[in-house]
Amino acid sequence: MFITGDSLELNESSLIEGELTLRKMRLTKEVLETKRSALRWLALSLGIINPGESRLSAVAVLDAMLNFQFNKKQDPKVPDLLDYISSRWEPMNEKTLRYHLLRMKKMGLVDNSDGRFYFKRGASAPGMAHEPWNFNIFESYYKDVFINIKEVLKEISSKN
To answer: Which of 5, 48, 76, 99 would be a feasible disulfide site paired with 68, CB 3.0-4.6 Å?
Structure first.
């Protein structure tokens, strides 16, 4: 924090505890025609990729994580993810895979323990249904944000 004249300026970047991008997108029948288009839509919606991004490596990592977590009910290791991606997408080097896993971890979507990766969740067993995952992670994140917004609006109103 530093003061310039009569105003107090904050170093905003030091206040940011996390970021989660969610995009409200139309869900058209074309989106659901193929698994890859649905995966791309999901990756865009969750902020894993950006609009216009042509690289599919992040989408392939998301696909692999979804497969292990929701279909196989397992927390995969890096070799498991690499095998899955190579068999369904195209070979990916370990460095690229770890880059995308780290990005998802920084986003608050993925976590890891003992060399295994999993979608961030509460105290539930390995492998889980998709519904509790998406509601738990997003609801708790935005609940905290909305509580802080409410407090700031209250403070602003009291200062008029």
So the answer is: 76
